[in-house]
Specification:
The complex is a heterodimer of chains A (about 775) and B (about 240). By secondary structure, chain A is an alpha+beta fold. In chain A, about 55% of the residues lie in helices and about 20% in strands. Chain B contains seven helices and ten strands. The two termini of chain B are about 30 Å apart. The chains are: A alpha+beta (about 775), B alpha/beta (about 240).
Chain lengths: ~775, ~240
């Protein structure tokens, strides 16, 4: 081994705590990168594979009732590869052991021919016998939630008739990777499941012999989805077509897309923060090491080593630290990735979901870490190259200090300790700034993570306490006359009812259009309210339309503009409506109107699509018992129950996220403060030991170091809050999709907790360094120059 | 001698110090007996490794003895805790180091004030600096002072607390003769004006002429003690 390499090894051994602190920060960067990129890739690839193997459709459309003969016509459309017509209906279920009403989405399976699209992956049992009216296959999460297996039974109200169904198989489908019921916030597997039955059996139940209610298409590669949707809409219009759509608008696919987008956003924001912090640390530590070893460097140059060789020696030092960081980070990334995959498996139902990363992910992580290390080392290495041997051999000139704020007379008023510390910090502004930025990054990453919880809480509060204040929502099988409202009002325990009417439509402005359900609500609604962007209730009077802020932004319209509305039901005409309000909404793209005006769109009077209710919790069981038997209802959303479930899931995720990010943030804070303190100690150790000789106590001397650290950490806080707000804004923008928007609300709690955690980590590292002060060699200081 | 009539401020009995490094034992002190009277100016000479610095460190409360006793007035240093030693240094001892050991981020005045801030009955920092002839350089940082000036700031810092004992380890080590003389003058002034017992370690044999007593160390022992019948003024020595 070369002597220089031996020195390298010994330096690493000697400086191991500092080297490890840097390596840990790098590891955090690599880990978040491997986690983010790996999870994204795993989820994306698993989805693609599942889609491909199970022939997930490309275009989806629903109609009231279309004749089977139309299928051949659709199949003949250029660009269409396969067509699968089917019957799809929501129906209430009565499940043993569940007091609340559940809903099944009933989907037909072709008899006698195999499925062409959206093939089921059978997890247990078998497919139903053709034509059997009792046999059903259910989705795996639903079965698991109830402990169902082949042979289990439950009841369903199909088209007003109650039937007992027998489970013969359990399956997963690429169509329902994320299965969420209407009006629900997140999947509730106990109350929502997919039920597949024989086509003939469902056709018999719903009077749809030789007819279908939805049709799915697979397109040839290169076919224009937009053109085919247009052709399809034309063909389906007279059968009550509600507008065909592509994967982008398919609910399960869209939720996965939103998740993938968020993962991508996270993997672009978090790792660079850690790597920047690591670069700052390398810079700080290496600069100090080189300052300490300038005489050695001079000696090496004097005996004939080139500047490049010596620079390479220090670069190897950085590379060794980086290597440790990469190995630790990759291992942590894989570990976290497996955890994330388990977490995802609760929401996204794949037959398999393994956290896999290809070598390129590790290479990217390694390259990024190495890049950060080299970037951090550049300045110090330049110094090594430029150091002339003669100067290097003589001790460095004593540091020059300046009196500051002379005019203010602060020098006389400030305690000596404060003066010492402030002047020392000002003497090395770059290092002080690096430490401040480093600590600020820790605070920032914490602020930039913790805000999400408060923002979510705000979303919940706005959505469930100010806007959707109903306890439950009953959706009818089809539009009902207004008197259905009174039937609901007579149910036991009902305190208030409020009708709504949904009208399917395409909203258009110029070339931009979106398929939405326009929801009509009574003027001055009290249960399900619409709030404007200042959270004031919007009365919804007159004939205008109110759009959520996201929808208005997409359509590029504002209050007072006129948009084109193409109805997808009734007489399907296209009309113009004035935008009367832009409103607040965090979920989906929604549009609201007065219920009478909404009814006038399809030229129908006094029809309602469902009812929002508030009920007496004491009589809940009685009410649920009656709701389960309600023939005209297809779905009952229980906002109260759903909110509770949402909170439970959120609480669990918060715990996981907080644990991970608090650890990561603490690593940065600890790493930066520890290295900063060690450098300060190495620079001032001589002075501090002298003070001990002069009669200062250990407490007084370490007080100086702690004061210096405290100043850096405290100054870093507002900077960190500012950065953190920036990260939050960046994240909010990255998280914002047509399905969900997280409001950018960074509350005092986020700042407060971020600072508290940073301070704790700083305190711990300060205490670790303090132990070194206690061990300062007082005798040595008398004999040696620094 | 007048000094011998007074009660000794230091009493050292059979002082020994052994450093252990692995299996190797180094006997730095091998049984030293010593007394110093209040106000005495003692110069300690001896080759490197003779034990004089170890002796000074133990007497100054920086290092612990292996065996033997050290008494300062009626306090036994050898039995003191770490905290008591810190207080002993804070209240009674002034140190002058070989390398000045000034805090570079504080001006001359502030460096002295560092000590006066924690001392029980200090003089003003300016007064201490006047005493060593630096009244005009109060607001200079160490980097703006010459070596001799820096050492005089160190002396001012050491004496500002009005110590009973002034311990100096090679105070003129890095200084030329002319500058060194000014430092010695400052030491003698302080010794005379404040009555601080002053122990000075040096390799510089010329300095012996200004002491009351010269103690010669060799191989961990005191090998000879000489009393100067007539002390020279600092200005009369040179090297």
């Amino acid at each position: 081994m070369l002597a220089l390499d031996r020195k390298l090894l010994r330096d690493l051994v000697r400086l191991w705590p500092q080297a490890l602190a840097i390596a840990l920060v790098m590891a955090a960067g690599v880990a978040t990168l491997v986690l983010g990129v790996g999870t994204h890739a795993s989820l994306d690839e698993t989805r693609s594979t599942f889609y491909e193997r199970n022939r997930f459709a490309d275009v989806f459309a629903s109609v009231t009732r279309a004749p089977g003969a139309l299928v051949a016509e659709i199949a003949a459309v250029p660009g269409v590869q396969s067509v699968e017509p089917r019957i799809e209906k929501l129906a209430l279920l009565s499940v043993p052991g569940l007091s609340a009403p559940a809903t099944g989405l009933f989907v037909s399976l072709p008899d006698f021919v195999p499925q062409r699209l959206n093939l089921l992956t059978i997890r247990a049992g078998r497919l139903p016998e053709p034509g059997d009216e009792r046999e059903a296959v259910v989705s795996e999460p639903f079965a698991k939630a109830h402990g169902f297996g082949p042979g289990s039974r439950f009841e369903a109200i199909l088209n007003g008739r109650k039937r007992t169904l027998v489970i013969v198989g359990i399956a997963l489908s690429p169509e329902f990777i994320y299965a969420i019921g209407p009006w629900d916030l997140m999947p509730d597997d106990r109350r929502y499941g997919i039920v597949w039955m024989s086509e003939r059996a469902l056709a018999g139940a719903y009077d749809l012999k030789s007819a279908f209610s939805t049709v799915h298409l697979k397109l040839l590669s290169g076919a224009s989805e937009r053109a085919i949707i247009e052709t399809l809409d034309g063909k389906l219009a007279r059968y009550g077509g509600r507008g065909a759509y592509g994967r982008k608008d398919q609910l399960s696919h869209a939720f996965l897309d939103a998740e993938l987008l968020q993962l991508k956003a996270m993997s672009r924001i978090t790792p660079p923060i850690f790597l920047l912090a690591a670069a700052l640390l390398v810079n700080m530590t290496l600069s100090r090491l080189i300052a300490l070893e300038r005489q050695q460097i001079g000696l090496l140059k004097a005996v004939g080593y080139s500047g490049g060789t010596i620079a390479a020696h220090y670069l190897k030092f950085v590379a060794a630290i980086t290597l440790v960081g990469i190995v630790l980070g990759a291992a942590a990334g894989v570990w976290l990735g497996n955890g994330a995959a388990r977490l995802y498996a609760d929401f996204f139902r794949f037959p398999f979901l393994l956290f896999r990363t290809d070598p390129s992910t590790y290479m990217a992580g390694g390259a990024a870490a190495l890049g950060a290390g080299v970037f951090g080392a550049l300045r110090a290495l330049r110094e090594v190259m430029q150091l002339p041997p003669a100067i290097a051999m003589s001790p460095p000139a004593p540091p020059q200090y300046r009196r500051m704020f002379v005019g203010l007379g602060l020098s006389d008023r400030l305690p000596r300790s404060v003066l010492m510390v402030v002047r020392h910090l000002a003497r090395w502004p770059l290092r002080t700034a690096s430490a401040i930025v480093g600590v600020a990054l820790a605070t920032a990453i914490l602020t930039g993570t913790l805000w999400v919880f408060q923002a979510t809480e705000f979303m919940i509060d706005t959505t469930f306490h100010r806007s959707e204040r109903q306890d439950a929502t009953i959706s009818f099988v089809q539009e009902m006359p207004e008197r259905a409202l009174f039937d609901v009002a007579r149910l036991p325990g009902i305190l208030a009812v409020e009708p709504y009417r949904n009208v399917a439509a395409k909203l258009r402005n110029g070339g931009v259009e979106r398929r939405v359900a326009i929801t009509g609500k009574p003027a001055g609604a009290m249960l399900s309210r619409v709030l404007d962007i200042d959270f004031r209730p919007v009365p919804l009077e007159g004939a205008g339309i109110a759009l959520t802020d996201m929808l208005a932004r997409i359509l590029r319209v504002g209050r007072g503009d006129v948009i084109e509305v193409e109805l997808l039901e009734g007489d399907r005409r296209t009309t113009q409506l004035p935008v009367t309000d832009v409103i607040k909404g965090y979920f989906g793209l929604t549009a609201y109107m007065n219920i009478d005006a909404a009814n006038r769109l399809p030229r129908e009077a006094d029809r309602i699509s469902g009812v929002h209710i508030r009920y007496d919790a004491v009589r809940q069981d009685e009410l649920f018992g009656r709701l389960k038997e309600l023939p005209k209802a297809s779905f009952i959303a229980l906002q109260r129950v759903s909110l509770q479930k949402f909170r439970e899931t959120l609480a669990r995720n918060i715990l996981t996220m907080v644990t991970i990010y608090v650890s990561l943030g603490a690593i940065i804070a600890f790493g930066v403060v520890y290295n900063f303190a060690r450098i300060t100690l190495s620079e001032q150790g001589h002075e501090l030991a002298s003070l001990r000789v002069l009669g200062f106590t250990r407490g007084e001397v370490s007080g100086l170091l702690i004061l210096e650290i405290s100043l850096v950490v405290l100054v870093a806080q507002p900077v960190g809050w500012l950065f953190g707000y920036g990260f939050a804004a960046w994240t909010a923008a990255g998280f914002s999709t047509e399905l969900v928007r997280v409001p950018l609300i960074v509350g005092r709690d986020a700042y407060g907790y971020a600072t508290a955690i940073t301070l704790m980590a700083a305190l711990v590292s300060a205490l670790v360094v303090r132990r070194r002060i206690d061990r300062l060699d007082l005798v040595e200081v008398l004999k040696t120059r620094e | 001698m007048l000094m011998e009539l007074e009660a000794p401020i230091f009493r050292v009995r059979a002082l020994a110090k052994v450093y252990r490094s692995g299996d190797v034992e180094v006997h730095a002190l091998r049984g030293v007996d010593f007394e110093a009277a209040a106000g005495e100016f003692v110069v300690m000479l001896g080759p490197s490794g003779s034990g004089k610095s170890t002796f000074l460190n133990i007497v100054g409360g920086l290092d612990a003895a292996t065996t033997g006793e050290v008494w300062f007035e009626d306090h036994e240093l050898t039995g003191m805790s770490e905290r008591e030693l810190t207080l002993y240094r804070r209240d009674h001892v002034g140190f002058v180091f070989q390398f000045y050991n000034l805090v570079p981020s504080l001006t001359a005045r502030e460096n002295v004030a560092l000590v006066t801030d924690i001392a029980r009955n200090p003089m003003r920092a300016e007064e201490a600096l006047e005493l060593v002839g630096l009244g005009a350089r109060l607001d200079h940082f160490p980097a703006q002072l010459s070596g001799g000036e820096q050492q005089r700031v160190a002396i001012a810092r050491a004496i500002a607390k009005r110590p009973e004992v002034l311990l100096c380890d090679e105070p003129t080590w890095a200084l030329d003769s002319k500058t060194g003389v000014r430092v010695l003058e400052a030491l003698m002034t302080v010794n005379a004006d404040l009555g601080a017992t002053t122990l000075v370690i040096t390799h510089n044999a010329a300095i012996r002429e200004i002491a009351h007593r010269v103690v010669m160390f060799g191989d961990g022992r005191i090998v000879s003690v000489a009393v100067n019948e007539r002390r020279l003024a600092a200005a009369d020595v040179s090297w």
